[in-house]
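**Protein record**
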Amino acid sequence: MRVKCVLCEKIESLNSDTLLAKRLRNRPIHTYMCQDCYNRIEDRTKERLATGNFKLYRTPKKPDDW
């Protein structure tokens, strides 16, 4: 399966039997991002977190009563 990165538009090929390929086929809202772009975003996010001026707003987890 051929996929295109959303950010850099690099075309890569994935094995059609992988879980990622299945997700991309069955759910068109899912987009593909190459590993280089993913690592770049991850590194820059960690740098911003280290400065102290950046906050990640995550929803607090509620305890499940089940």
